[in-house]
Amino acid sequence: MIPVAFVQIFVLVLPSVLNVESRNEEFSARLLDSVLQDYAFRAFVRPRTGIPYDGNVPSNFSGIKVSGLRLRSGSMRRRGVSKYKEFHIPIGVLEQPYVERLILVYHNLANWSDLYYPLPGYTYLTPVLGILTYDASNLSARNLPELDIRASKKPILVNFSNVVKPVPMGLSPKCVYFNLDGAVEFDNILNGNMCKTTKQGHFSVVVEFTTAEPEPEPEPGTDGHKKSGRKKWVIFGSVVGGFVALIFLVLLIACLKKYDKQKKIDRMEQEAERGVPLLMTRVGNTKAPIASETRTRPSLENEYLP
């Protein structure tokens, strides 16, 4: 039988585990990619090649922007796309596997960036922008796998000029790239607002947190001097307390030595008393040895006279 304690622990822990799993699923970036692919494809009511179509997301994704751009594969490879939202697609971009038509799906996660792409130790200066590629042969398809695109000549550029926040004083912004497999890569920013890549994925500009700066020197007459004075008193008290403790330790050692010496003397006296068995008698408040009877009785001189 299963112990009752184990069952109780299981009942208490299971809701927490399920809650964590449901929360991870709720803010899964890959799940969001699939959802946004569906809404981007729905925007192609009367599709025309080379024209971006903005999709409409439901209210529970308010703030997120999605768009789709349908292209011929050969046209993208030979001409590129000079401007698609914040992205510049150069010539020479190839997809794998090959398809006749493809759709570039654009993401702008806005205020949802931190939830779907948490990055501990860093602050976002821009929303997370993404571009993913899908096969355009079936515009009603859902849960499509992404095509793999690579820039073979010049890199793909992401221009954040319209969305980047001011850089805090003394900090250096960096480009961050989120791969589809969850890997995170950092790179130097170009011209203060531009990132480059050779692959599809999600991109942003971030700054790294810095350690707290040292507190400035307090001005005369402020609380800083009071704190300094208290600190000196604490140091003085520690020194005095240590000195008193040292004196107490020395006295304690002296007392222990004296006690040990007295104990040795008592032990020696006991050994001496056991070595010479004398008869003792009490005289007043003390004990004193007494002599036993003499071995020969005294005799008078006249006892031997005739």
Description of the structure:
The chain has 306 residues and is of the alpha+beta class. It is built from five helices and 16 strands. Strands 1, 2, 6, 7, 8, 11, 12 and 14 form an eight-stranded antiparallel sheet that branches. Strand 3 and strand 4 (87-89) form a beta hairpin. The radius of gyration is 47 Å and the shape is rod-shaped.
Give a short synopsis of this structure.
Helices cover 33% and strands 26% of the residues. The protein is α+β, with helices and mostly antiparallel strands.
Distinctive features:
single chain; 306 residues; alpha+beta; Chondroitinase Ac, Chain A, domain 3; disordered N terminus; transmembrane; membrane; signal; DUF1191; transmembrane helix
Structural class: alpha+beta
Unreliable stretches = 1-24
Helical segment tally?
5
Largest pleated sheet:
8 strands, antiparallel
| CATH C-level category of the largest domain | Mainly Beta
* Cα separation of the termini: 119 Å
Mean pLDDT: 81
Gyration radius, rounded? 47 Å
CATH topology of the largest domain: Chondroitinase Ac, Chain A, domain 3
Q: Percent of residues in helical segments?
A: 25-40%
Number of domains: 2
* Content of β-strand: 25-35%
The coarse silhouette is rod-shaped
CATH architecture of the largest domain: Sandwich
Number of strands: 16
Write down the secondary-structure element order: HHEEHEEEEHEEEEEEEEHEE
